[in-house]
Specification:
A two-stranded antiparallel sheet has the order 1-2. It is 79% helix and 10% strand. The chain is mainly alpha-helical and 117 residues long. Helix 1 runs antiparallel to helix 2. InterPro entries: PFD_beta-like, Prefoldin. Keywords: Chaperone. GO terms for molecular function: protein folding chaperone; unfolded protein binding. Belongs to the prefoldin subunit beta family.
């Protein structure tokens, strides 16, 4: 392999490696955000669970709070918990695939660098 071709291949692999690395960082950020949302929703649901069913509750929407029945707030929280759980599973499987791809790219780059032309 000519030096120019080898350098071009290494640059292409490095570009793909960097792209995957930034995608991994973004997924990690999304995962942390989902974990925080999940914990908050689970904690709030646990606190509301002990209240009587006819208790009016406030549900935060953006910067506002709206008075709603407890059942409505609990349904909203349960939906949020299920959604976050599904997203966490999806992000974990995507992360595993990207980590595997990163390892393969790392091996290819190492192999190209170590090959003597």
């Amino acid at each position: 392999m000519a030096d120019d071709d080898k350098i071009k291949a290494i640059r292409e692999l490095k570009s793909r490696f960097d792209h995957n690395n930034s995608a991994l960082k973004q997924m990690e950020s999304q995962r942390r955000q989902n974990e925080v949302t999940l914990r908050r929703a689970a904690f709030t649901a646990a606190q509301l669970d002990g209240l009587p069913s006819d208790t009016p509750c406030y549900r935060g929407v953006g910067r506002a709070y709206f008075l709603q029945p407890k059942e409505s707030v609990m349904t909203y929280l349960e939906t949020g918990i299920k959604s976050c759980d599904t997203d966490l599973k999806r992000l974990t499987s995507s992360r595993d695939a990207l980590v595997k791809s990163q390892e393969e790219l790392r091996k290819e780059i190492t192999e190209l660098i170590s090959v003597r032309s």
